Amino acid sequence: MAKKEYVPLFETRQVKGRILFRCIAASILLGICFIIMYRIRYFPVGGKAERWTWIGLFLSELWFSFYWLLTTVCRWNAVIRIPFIHRLSQRFGKELPGIDIFVCTADPLIEPPSLVVNTVLSMMAYDYPPEKLSVYLSDDGGSNLLFYAMLEAANFSKTWLPFCKKFQVESTSPEAYFRTASELVNVQEWLSVKKLYEDMKMRIETTTKLNQIPEYIQKQHKGFREWDFVSSKHDHQTILQILIDGRDTNAVDIEGNPLPTLVYLAREKRPQYHHHFKAGSMNALIRVSSKITNAPIILNVDCDMYSNNSNTIKSSLCIFMDEEKGDEIGYVQFPQCFYNLTKNEIYGSSLRVLLQLEVLGFDANGGPNYMGSGCFHRRETLCGKKYEKNYKVDWKKINDKKVDETASFLEETCKVLASCTFEHNTPWGKEMGLKYGTPVEDVVTGISIQCNGWKSIYLNPEREGFLGVAPITLLQNLVQHKRWAEGELQLFFSRYCPLLYGHRKIPLKIQLIYSTYKLWAANCLATWYIVVVPCLCLLKGISLFPKISSPWVLPFVYVTFVHRAYSLAEFLWCGGTFRGWCNDQRIWLFKRTTSYLFAFFETILKLLGHSQLNFVVTAKVADEDVSKRYDQELIEFGAASPMFDILATLAMLNLFGSLGASKKATMDADQDSKVLDQFGLQILLCLVLVTINLPVYQALFFRKDNGKMPTSVMYKSIVFALLACMLAMY
């Protein structure tokens, strides 16, 4: 009887268009088979150079075919999840569980306090009972400037939270709201709150600029005395301050409503101890929060990812609290979206096809990977609990748990939980908490949770749950992807390789899907071959593709055209533009020839013991000129970098190859048709690469702004490209 009365809190639907996708995938696979047949059947028997270049191209095509098959497995079956928030409220009412929200920041110079404050305030303003909401900030920079900013945020929250509730604000970051709000429901109140925010922001930014807290402010809170014992951001004791105690009857907003708990933590750091970057920060928060609030659900976000949907918490609870399917869910992942994207996404930062289509396939096969931000976890799963078949959560019993100690007592007794030595000879970082030893601690942790028997869910609501800051320079973008790709490849060669670690623990499909991300960096070799060798062979007169007049040209043309055309259709369907797709293809090439190349070889060096693990924080701020060029959709090449040396050299190489082919075709009119027939596809490939690299040529020779290529890069690229061409023609 109870079974018939069951009404789910969320629904799973098949993604539209999967039949079309499967038909196109099958036709592409058939075309790939014909290409392989051609490579084998027409293997050159002539010179040594012809044979080796043919073999290299054949291996590159085999790699691309293999990688395409992996991504197709991921996309073969895709689903979307639809939560029913109204059913959650009707069914559980006041029995909703507590939520602990973790916000992590590492450097006040790269991640300014005003940005962090906006994220914290947005988390405090969720449409959720405030007495069940707690926000923890982990300050790995140990900055008294950020502590001061948090005090300002605690005070401003008394006005901001009731304002958000009264006017049903969705984008609850004050900066984002006042930047985008167009309708003034109550002009006087709106302007009043805006002025309070701008005054707070000015005080924070002025203090940050001066790099000093005024003495009269330091006397206002006991927490500032902690910095009397701080040697540096790499050498200090644990600093733990409960800025708002949600249990305190005096902790109320201007309308008398209770405020969420707000906690500041700077874990202990000493030069002789490894602090394990973000993973160590998260693990300290897990332990400290377990003594202060101990909520069963944990949300973690990066310091630049503010809340853009007031119902995000309730949406995730629809998954966790579903009576039939919820108990097996370990975490709920939301996509990482960005508010500062240009219309045509000049750096392809939205990853829209990956997040709107590919991850849906991941979800259908057992759950998406943990992406490091915008993820709701069961506290138990992060602490290493394994899923048991008859596992059931008694939400009422969980809600009855209370913490009776005073805030001062908790501040003192919990400091040891964030000390450098606490984790020694414990399972933390191995069986408990986020995993150590890799730059992609989030991915390893997600795999471990799934290997413990838990499933995960991907939620992509119509209104984005979180919005962050995308890199606004090309170098930032390439460095970020280099770090991701390096971490993923390190993972593939470690004990956490999904094919080994996940063997008999998670389905084979998930293992293969994980492998598509782990092998990002490995794509660099085949991409380099396709970009460099056909161009050089064109100059030497070596044909690598069938003649235009041959029927064997059809599978090459079909696979290339259909694959790219379908890619464009998907991009447009996901809300992109044609120019946005072109930019996405350009960045795809840039990443594979630079970010992935450096990631690949640094991983190999690390495996050989010649490289140390490092962690790079992507800058969240930029100067005015850079921001202006970004808004104008001009690619930023202004910094000197080996990555730009590579991009410029490859661009010049293909330009010289195209010019050489044109010269060869025009010098002898009688041979013109034969040259085009024999080398048509190679010439077309060079021309496509030249078209992709048009912004590079513009930055090398025509731009006058500070975003142009440095002169040294121009000279080096021309010399290297000419040298390669001369060696090829020798």
From TrEMBL:
GO MF: cellulose synthase (UDP-forming) activity
Swiss-Prot/TrEMBL keywords: Cell wall biogenesis/degradation, Glycosyltransferase, Membrane, Transferase, Transmembrane, Transmembrane helix
Q: Which domain of life is it from?
A: Eukaryota
Q: Which GO terms describe its biological process?
A: cell wall organization; cellulose biosynthetic process
The entry's UDP-alpha-D-glucose-binding residues are E111, D140
Which positions are catalytic residues? D140, D442
Q: Where in the cell is it found?
A: Endomembrane system
Q: Per the UniProt record, which residue ranges are transmembrane?
A: 19-40, 52-70, 519-539, 637-659, 679-701, 713-729
Membrane topology reported for the UniProt record: Multi-pass membrane protein
**Might you report a single GO cellular component term?**
membrane
What residues bind Mn(2+), as annotated?
K278, D302
**What family is reported?**
Belongs to the glycosyltransferase 2 family. Plant cellulose synthase-like E subfamily.
PANTHER family, per database record: X-BOX TRANSCRIPTION FACTOR-RELATED
Q: What does this protein do?
A: Thought to be a Golgi-localized beta-glycan synthase that polymerize the backbones of noncellulosic polysaccharides (hemicelluloses) of plant cell wall.
Name listed for the protein in its UniProt record: Glycosyltransferase 2-like domain-containing protein
Provide the species name.
Gossypium darwinii (Darwin's cotton)
Q: What is the lineage of its organism?
A: Eukaryota, Viridiplantae, Streptophyta, Embryophyta, Tracheophyta
